[in-house]
Amino acid sequence: MLTRQERFWRDPINTPALTSAVSPRPALGLASGKLILAGEHSVVYDRPAIALPFTRLNARARISSIDGPSRVSSAYYEGTLDDAPDILSGMVDCIRATVEAVGHPREHFMIQVDSTIPTGRGLGSSAAVAASAVRGIASYYGAVLSHEEEMSLVRIAEVHAHGTPSGIDAEAVVATGPFRFVKATPIVPLPVGRALHLVVADSGLRGNTRAAVEGVRCRFENERAATEEHLDQLAVVVDDVQDALRDGDTEFLGTSMNVAQRELSAIGVSDSALDSLIVEALRAGALGAKITGSGLGGCIVVLASDAESVAPLAEALRSAGAQETWPVVVHERSAEEIR
Ligand code: PMV
User: For ligand 1, is residue 155 a contact (CB within 6 Å)?
Assistant: First the structure.
C-alpha cells in the first residue's frame, strides 16, 4: 500500500520533470527533519547547542502555475492562501514574505506541501515545512536567496509556531551534518571522528514547544540562580558532546547525553513517558539517552554502542511503548571535509 506521499510523487501530474503548460516550470523545495543532540532550551538563553539534520524524514513543497488566486494544498488545508485558517497563518505570512523577497508578489501559484515529519514531536516539522516552501518558491522564480534571507523567512513561520524561536530548527532542517549553534551567530559545522548509530523513539505524545519554553521561562524568572546553574551545566555538556563527536568517543558521548537528560529533567521538560523510554533504552544497553527537542511529549534520541545494537534497541523501545522508532547514522567527517 503506497503512502499518501508516494502516491503524490508517482502521479505523472506531480512529476517535476513535466513542463507546465504555463511557465514558469513547477519547482520543488526540500528540507529535512532535525535532531538536537544537546543544548535544547539552554540555547534560548544564549548558550550553545548541537543539532543535525534528520534526513530520513522530510518536507517537500511543489510550486506550480495556476490561474486565479494562489492556493495551498496540505494535509491540513486545501484552498486559497487568502482563506487559509489561522493555524496556517505563520506559513501564509512566510509564503507571502518569500514571494515579496523574490520580487513576484502578485503572481499566482499552487503550493503543495507534503511532509513525513510527525508534528509536535520536536523533529522540526514546522521549520522544515516553512523551509521547503521558501526554497520551492525561490526555485520556482529562479531566485537565489542568501542563507540569511532563507533563515529570516523561515523564522516568520517559526515565530507563529514557537513564539521566540532560537533559530536552531531553521538551521538544522537545511544543514548537511552536525553543527554548533549559538543564537544569532553563524553555525559551525562539526567534525565527527567515528560514525554514530542513534535510534530516535517517538513517545507518540504531542509536545508543545511554546508551552515547554514558557515553563522554563517561568522557572528562570522564579528560581533564577538554580535555573542558571542548570543552563550552565547544559552548556558544559554541549562542549563535551562536541569533543566526543570530534574524537569519536562514543562512551563519553553517551555519558554526556545522560548528563544532559538529568539537567533537562531538572528544568522540568521531561515527563514520565519519556523517562520510562530512557530507562528502557539504558537497560537495553544504550550508551546514552535523552529527550530531543522541547520535550513534554515528543521523542528521545538514544546512542547505540554499535550498528548491531540498533535493531535490538529499537525493538526494546517499541516493546516499552514507543509508537515509532527510526535508526539514524551520523557519518564520519573530517575537519578537512567541512572546510
Ligand atoms: O521545535 P522543538 O520542539 O524541537 O524545540 C526547539 C528547541 C528549543 O530549544 C526548545 C526551542 C528553541 O527555540 O530553541
Answer: no
